[in-house]
């Protein structure tokens, strides 16, 4: 389990004084700031302690629950992270993505996929969300949907070797070997030293009995 680093003196004072800086009628801004500083410093237990102490006095704000979820995730407490994130602002793509990530780590792949779908619907520009959604679609056997998503991502970022390689692997699963070769070759041109790309391309050539091409790749 990750261990939090020692808390710097200034941060420790801010954590101790946070409840007194602003009235308890609302979520004290100092409490949230103390939690953010603790997270940034790697003091995850301190962040949890700060937020849970605030929650004992009054319900946390949605942002407070998001920060609490982040702290629990860093401490590998994925179930508690999910519990906190479900009380955060789930209209935010980043909250939904974090929820999906933690659900997936708990083995709840269907719920994770649903969370990532909602996250992507709210922010189609976030490449991390889109990439994770595509990977979950592949795991769920929704290969055609994953293929469409990878093609959309490549249309925005045609020089991304990783996306070409992932799409190539997907085409292999769909028995579309010609398309797999095209995307493996593109990935190899963009990232010539990538062992997974080299191996994937070699395997496709061997499987399709393109032996001369396989030798060319093997000798490169």
Mean pLDDT metric: 89
What percent of the residues sit in helical stretches (DSSP H or I)?
Answer: over 70%
CATH topology of one domain: Serine Threonine Protein Phosphatase 5, Tetratricopeptide repeat
Radius of gyration, in Å, reads 23 Å
Total strand segments? 0
Largest sheet: none
What top-tier CATH class of one domain fits best? Mainly Alpha
Task: Name the beta content range.
Answer: under 5%
Description:
This protein is mostly helical and 220 residues long. The protein has 13 helices and no strands. It has helices at residues 9-21, 29-40, 44-57, 62-74, 78-85, 93-105, 109-122, 127-139, 143-156, 161-173, 177-190, 195-207, 211-219. 39% of the residues are buried. Residues 20-26 have low confidence and may be disordered.
């Amino acid at each position: 389990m990750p261990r939090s680093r020692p808390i710097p003196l200034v941060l420790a004072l801010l954590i101790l004084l946070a409840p007194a800086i602003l009235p308890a009628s609302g979520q004290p801004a100092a409490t949230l700031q103390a939690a953010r500083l603790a997270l940034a410093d790697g003091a995850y237990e301190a962040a949890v302690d700060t937020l849970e102490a605030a929650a004992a006095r009054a319900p946390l704000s949605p942002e407070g629950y998001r920060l609490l979820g982040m702290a629990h995730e860093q401490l590998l407490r994925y179930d508690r992270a999910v519990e906190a994130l479900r009380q955060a602002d789930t209209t935010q793509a980043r909250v939904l993505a974090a929820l999906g990530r933690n659900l997936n780590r708990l083995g709840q792949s269907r719920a994770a996929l649903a969370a990532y779908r909602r996250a992507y619907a709210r922010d189609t520009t976030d490449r991390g969300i889109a990439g994770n959604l595509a990977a979950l679609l592949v795991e769920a056997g929704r290969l055609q949907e994953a293929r469409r998503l990878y093609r959309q991502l490549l249309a925005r970022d045609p020089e991304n070797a990783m996306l070409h390689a992932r799409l190539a692997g997907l085409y292999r699963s769909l028995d579309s070997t010609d398309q797999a070769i095209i995307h493996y070759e593109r990935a190899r041109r963009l990232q010539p030293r990538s062992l997974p790309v080299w191996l994937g391309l070699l395997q496709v050539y061997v499987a399709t009995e393109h032996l001369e091409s396989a030798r060319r790749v093997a000798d490169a």
